[in-house]
Write a structure and sequence with these properties.
alpha+beta, 2 domains, 4-stranded antiparallel sheet, globular, binds iron/sulfur cluster
Length: 373
């Protein structure tokens, strides 16, 4: 139902429209400056070089700190989550999120549908964002009460887990009611309870007490990083626990008890919204083998990953990953994670140790027992 631009958005109508557009969760926050705590986390991340080669994270800092600079007069940030399922058992060795059509296309279309249902027009009254604008998506999802930030750094929705894409509508309209965060501060990790599974599972020790060090993270290295991989990347790709992948990394997601507690059926968006993301394809039904992947031609790559998020790595990057993934075990050097990351990136080793090696207080093989009750 179109909104009058002289009256506030009805939060009830916003949430109803979000569900109708296929989103699983929706929260509403007043637009404003990032909290001092979050701004401090960002400053630490940049100062310590945790953003690695993602230079774009150094740009547009004013907008990242204040979404009101993204659209003049912005008063409200609407945050939504679009779930995706775990990897298909027989699927290609790529991260779960990358199966199906590129989420940028799918979620952006759903966001525009959502905005249209509210009568919000781009670009004067609102703007829709999916992972491409200088906006701190996880912060706004936390601020809008969609979920909390776990020790993995992922946004976790208590009944949905962490397998979803985030999107935002920033609008000049106020809302009649705003949501409150699930945790009083963004870094408390209170809802992780005593769990440390993601820290223990991370093969490169990327999850530090100061946040994610992308230089040691396979997701960053196999998707965003240009140039050679660290010598230990092959070992990290095959480290237990978790599914070995040559594109992305699902370990901290796979081990999270919030995901184990979340049946796929519950996480799936409304019927009729799923097929474009989950359409059966070669990638979902064939894991391939070493010969197939190591001989992948650029023409095959273009056909296989047409409209896929995997194109982010480009052909050269994907073949680099595949070579590391199928490298004979004897060829894999085994330096420490810290030395390894420094060697490839030509930077001094981070001063603070990873907390991963120091946290072994897993209390149960069953994920549910690790969650606070
Ligand atoms: S995606 Fe993989 S490498 Fe990156 S933090 Fe999670 S477990 Fe570690
Ligand atoms: S694995 Fe455990 S510690 Fe990590 S985000 Fe999930 S609940 Fe939190």
């Amino acid at each position: 139902m179109p909104q009058s631009f002289t009256s506030p958005l009805s939060s009830q109508q916003v949430k109803s429209a979000a569900l109708s557009a296929g989103f699983a969760v929706c929260g509403i926050a007043p637009a404003g400056l990032l909290s001092a705590e979050r701004a401090g986390q960002r400053e630490t991340m940049l100062r310590r070089g945790f953003h690695a080669g993602m230079d774009y994270l150094e740009r547009n800092e004013e907008k990242r700190l204040d979404p009101r600079l993204l659209i003049p007069g912005a008063r409200t940030v609407i945050s939504v989550a679009w779930p995706y399922p775990p990897r298909p058992a027989q699927g290609a060795p790529i991260a779960a999120y990358a199966f199906g059509r590129d989420y940028h296309q799918v979620v952006k279309a759903a966001l525009r549908d959502f905005a249209g249902r509210l009568g919000l027009a781009e670009p004067d009254v609102c703007r829709c964002f999916v992972d491409t604008a200088p906006i701190d998506e996880r912060y706004w999802a936390w601020r809008a009460g969609v979920g909390f930030i776990g020790r993995s750094g992922m946004l976790i929705v208590p009944r949905l887990g962490s397998r979803f894409f985030l999107g935002e509508i920033v609008t000049v309209l106020p809302a009649d009611t705003y949501d409150v965060p699930l945790t009083p501060d963004i870094a408390s990790h209170r809802l992780c309870g005593v769990c440390r599974r993601c820290l223990d599972a991370c093969p490169g020790g990327a999850l530090t007490s100061d946040g994610l060090d992308a230089r040691r993270c396979l997701s960053y290295l196999t998707i965003e990083h240009r140039g050679p991989l660290p010598p230990a990347a092959s070992r990290w790709m095959h480290a237990a626990p978790g599914t070995p992948l040559f594109y992305g990394c699902d370990r901290c997601t796979e081990v999270c008890p919030y995901n184990a507690a979340c049946p796929v059926a519950e996480a799936a968006p409304a019927e009729g919204k799923v097929p474009s993301v989950l359409a059966p394809s070669f990638l979902a039904e064939n894991s391939g083998d070493a010969a197939f992947w190591t001989h992948l031609s650029v023409e095959d790559y273009r056909a296989l990953f047409k409209d896929s998020a995997v194109k982010r790595a480009k052909y050269e990057g994907l073949m680099r990953n595949i070579a590391a993934f199928y490298a004979p075990a004897d060829d894999v050097a085994a330096p420490s994670a810290t030395a390894d990351a420094s060697a490839i990136l030509g930077e001094a080793s981070p001063a603070a140790p990873s907390v991963a090696s120091a946290t072994t207080d897993k209390t149960s093989a069953e994920g549910q027992d690790l969650l606070p009750r």
